From TrEMBL, chain A:
GO MF annotation, one: serine-type endopeptidase activity
Domain Peptidase S26, first and last residues per copy: 17-93, 102-146
InterPro entries per UniProt: LexA/Signal_pep-like_sf, Mito_IMP1_subunit, Pept_S26A_signal_pept_1, Peptidase_S26
Listed name of the protein: Mitochondrial inner membrane protease subunit
Coiled coil: none
GO BP, sorted A to Z: protein processing involved in protein targeting to mitochondrion; signal peptide processing
Family per record: Belongs to the peptidase S26 family. IMP1 subfamily.
EC number(s) per entry: 3.4.21.-
General function of this protein: Catalyzes the removal of transit peptides required for the targeting of proteins from the mitochondrial matrix, across the inner membrane, into the inter-membrane space. Known to process the nuclear encoded protein DIABLO.
Lineage of the species this protein comes from: Eukaryota, Metazoa, Chordata, Craniata, Vertebrata
Keywords for the protein's UniProt record, in alphabetical order: Hydrolase, Membrane, Mitochondrion, Mitochondrion inner membrane, Protease
Keyword Membrane: yes
Subunit text: Heterodimer of 2 subunits, IMMPL1 and IMMPL2.
TrEMBL record, chain B:
Protein name: Mitochondrial inner membrane protease subunit
InterPro entries recorded: LexA/Signal_pep-like_sf, Mito_IMP1_subunit, Pept_S26A_signal_pept_1, Peptidase_S26
Superkingdom classification of source: Eukaryota
Organism: Vulpes vulpes
GO molecular function term, any single one: serine-type endopeptidase activity
C-alpha cells in the first residue's frame, strides 16, 4: 500500500512539474492574459481591465513606438508597470512641460526606451524616473478582453503630439 | 444482352480495381504515412516538453555559464566556466559582495558579470581617488550598484550608473573551470569599496 501511494504521489508531482513548466514557457514565450490596475493608461485601458499580452515581440526585439508594453518597474522589481513606448534608443524626447518657456530635450540612451502613460496627468512614468532599459520589458499588450463593451484591438495613443519632433 | 453483359463485366472489373486501389491506399495510410506522421508529432511533442522543463530548470534553479572579458580579474578570468544559481534573484536575496549576471543596460542582447557593491539606499563613493573633493551618490530604490573586480578595466556602474534590480538574472558562486581554480569564489579584492567614508 505504502509503495503504491508513494508511487502515485511521485507520478503526480512529476506530471505537475512537467505541465507547470510547459505552462510557464507558454506564458513567457507566447503570451498570456493580464489584468491591469491603475489610472495611468486611461482612456485606453481602464482600471481592472483584462487584456491579452504577447511576449514574442520582446524576444525578437520588435517593440515599436506606440506599443503598449508591460515592464518590470525600475523602482520596485516585484511589480509591473503598463505604459506606452514613446521613444526608442536615439530618439529625441521633449522633456519640458508645455508651460515652460524654453523647451528642453533629452535623447534616449542605447538599450533604453521612454515610456509614458496615456493619462498624462496621472501617470508615473519616464518623465519621473527617466528612460528604462529594454531588458525590463516583459511583453506587449495588443488586445482587450474585458469589459466586453471595449473588446478588440487597442486604440492608438490619444497623445499623438508626443511622437512628433519639435 | 451481350452489351449489358459486357457493361456489367466492365463495372465489375472497375469495382475490383477500385477496391484493390482503395485497399492499397488504406494500408499505406495506416502503416507508413500514419506511422511516420505519428512518430514526427510524438518527437516534436517530447522535444517541446523536455525543452520547457530544461528551460525552467535553467531559469529557476541555475546553470553553467562561460564568462568572457577582463573586468572580473583576478576572481574570474577570461573563458572561465562558472556555475550560476537563479534562486536568490527570485527570492530577492542578492547581497552586497555577490557576483551577479545581469542583462546589460546598454545592450539587451548581452549579459554582464559584475559584483554588487551597493544595494538600494546605500551611499556610494563616486569620485576617483585622485579627486580632492569626494562625491557620493545614493543608490535609488529598486536599483543596485555594480562594479567589476578589475577596476582599471571594467565598464560598470561607474560608467552607466546604477541598474534596476529587475535586470539581474542570477548569482555566480562557484567556479568549475579551470580545475586549478575549482571552488567557491573569493571575496572582493576591493574591500575598501564597501566601507562608508
Amino acid at each position: 500500500m505504502l509503495r503504491g501511494v508513494l508511487g502515485k504521489t511521485f507520478r503526480l508531482v512529476g506530471y505537475t512539474i512537467q505541465y507547470g513548466c510547459i505552462a510557464h514557457c507558454a506564458f513567457e514565450y507566447v503570451g498570456g492574459v493580464v489584468m491591469c490596475s491603475g489610472p495611468s493608461m486611461e482612456p485606453t485601458i481602464q482600471n481592472s481591465d483584462i487584456v491579452f499580452a504577447e511576449n514574442l515581440s520582446r524576444h525578437f526585439y520588435g517593440i515599436q513606438r506606440g506599443d503598449i508594453v508591460i515592464a518590470k518597474s525600475p523602482s520596485d522589481p516585484k511589480s509591473n508597470i503598463c505604459k506606452r513606448v514613446i521613444g526608442l534608443e536615439g530618439d529625441k524626447i521633449l522633456t519640458s512641460s508645455p508651460s515652460d518657456f524654453f523647451k528642453s530635450h533629452n535623447y534616449v540612451p542605447t538599450g533604453h526606451v521612454w515610456l509614458e502613460g496615456d493619462n498624462l496627468q496621472n501617470s508615473t512614468d519616464s518623465r519621473y524616473y527617466g528612460p528604462i532599459p529594454y531588458g525590463l520589458i516583459r511583453g506587449r499588450i495588443f488586445f482587450k478582453i474585458w469589459p466586453l463593451s471595449d473588446f478588440g484591438f487597442l486604440r492608438d495613443s490619444p497623445n499623438g503630439h508626443r511622437f512628433s519632433d519639435d
